[in-house]
Design a protein that fits this description.
The protein is about 30% helix and about 20% strand. With about 200 residues, it is an alpha/beta fold. It binds S-adenosyl-L-homocysteine.
Length: about 200
Amino acid sequence: SDVGPQKDRVVTEEEWLQKWELGNIGFHKEQVHPLLQKHLDLLLNGRSGLRIFFPLCGKAVEMKWLADMGHNVVGVEVSEQALKEFFSEHSLPYCEEPVPEISGGKLFQSTSGNISLYCCSIYDLSSTIVGKFDGVWDRGALVAVNPCDRQRYVSLMINLMEKNSSYLLVTVSYDPNKHKGPPFYVPESEVQSLFG
Ligand code: SAH
């Protein structure tokens, strides 16, 4: 678990925006993640009509999939382009409004009301603004956060969770000497210490 080589690496918001502009988005998948399909029952735990959070959501197709099952989906993403592509690729009408609590923040909400996507940094959010969640789908999120921001990110996520919530986390395992990330290598031991 040698995480040394990646610990000081920083990807700026501008770099993420540029990835979207250049279409450099190899992380985006057209199909629902097989691990979400496989472990859906762990996320739902027999419950219906959940509030499910997608940190660093991109244009993840799983948001539409879960919304179609009757859940309320909330996401956050710095790229406005990503959010607009999400709605247009699924032919979903939406409206756009400013978020008074967040300078420059915008909320894109499906007209049907069950998909609410915040365009801002995740670090601008709080439970006062978005409420708390029954479930979290964290794929391409903890592993995309800069290593120096992991503790802050996880503290926020814990704050956004209801008492009986479930958190599905996807990580990747590889030799961090061979690839600079993202996705970053977050070893199991670090997941344990971050989430406690
Ligand atoms: N979870 C998505 C996207 C993964 S890529 C998926 O599964 O496809 C990580 C995404 O996080 C990128 O779209 C990037 O623009 C966004 N991002 C990076 N830093 C962010 C931040 N601080 N706040 C919100 N979004 C951020």
